[in-house]
Write a structure and sequence with these properties.
Elements: E1 3-5, E2 15-19, H1 24-33, E3 38-42, H2 45-54, E4 59-62, E5 74-75, H3 78-81, E6 90-94, H4 98-102, E7 110-114, H5 119-129, E8 135-139, H6 144-157, H7 164-183, H8 197-200, E9 208-215, E10 218-225
Parallel strand pairs: 1-8, 2-7, 2-8, 3-6, 4-5, 4-6
Antiparallel strand pairs: 3-10, 7-9, 9-10
């Protein structure tokens, strides 16, 4: 199946695109827009901390339960990153879904991270560099936005003309699901997505793919213009 969930087995040798719209890979896209040189994606918060211990010059970005850990430089927030000066900086990102999903795909022919802001550029990169290679799209979350992004990207890869409005509607539906889940938490554990959502639904604002290179224990993303 070309569109799968986080727990699916993925055969080796496929182009694998890992999707996290709200918010990990939207945050990553904004970080690259702000000048980040690369992003080391860790499979857990503790793995991110260990990478930082080894590379203390790097900025640590991410979340646990949706909230920024106290020792992180930035949260998992595209709005927050949009005001950051990151020229030439190397980042470490650790999130509950997106970065963990990248770490599960060590045997891909190509490994990419995508959200709505760079979905078109991702399709162009795949068509240019891996035409005819089978692909799998991995939805790291269980809410509607990742599936909507997967359907939209699948349409682009198949050569059809998917409706941008359908993607935006799926992101809005997913945001409502997130808001409902957060409302069940104690006030101190709730996440306000209102400032991040304009970035998450800004389809094709970023003209680059985020291409992953597998390292021991993490995946390094770089920005590739398309």
């Amino acid at each position: 199946m070309p569109i799968v969930g986080m727990d699916a087995g993925i055969p080796a040798g496929r182009v694998v695109v890992v999707i996290d719209v709200i918010r990990a890979f939207t945050t990553a896209a904004v970080a690259f827009e702000r000048g980040a040189a690369e992003i080391a994606c860790a499979p857990s918060v503790e793995a991110g901390r260990e990478l930082r211990r080894r590379h203390p010059d790097r900025l640590l970005v991410g979340e646990a339960g949706g909230l920024r850990p106290a020792d992180f430089d930035f949260g998992n927030s595209p709005s927050e990153l949009s005001a950051a000066r990151l020229d030439g900086r190397r980042l470490i990102q650790a999130t509950s879904n997106g970065t963990r999903g990248l770490a599960r795909c060590p045997d891909a022919a190509a490994l990419l991270a995508v959200s709505a802001p760079n979905v078109g550029a991702t399709a162009r990169w795949i068509a240019r560099h891996h035409p005819g290679v089978p692909w799998t799209l991995v939805c790291t979350g269980r809410t509607a936005e990742d599936r909507a992004c997967a359907r939209y990207l699948a349409g682009l890869l198949d050569g059809s003309a998917p409706e941008r409005a359908d993607l935006v509607a799926g992101i809005e539906e997913g945001a409502a699901e997130h808001a409902h889940a957060y409302a069940q938490r104690p006030a101190s554990e709730r996440v306000d997505l209102s400032r991040d959502l304009p970035f998450c639904r800004d389809v094709d604002r970023s003209g680059f793919a985020m291409v992953g290179a597998v390292r021991t224990g993490h995946v390094v993303l770089t920005r590739v213009p398309c």
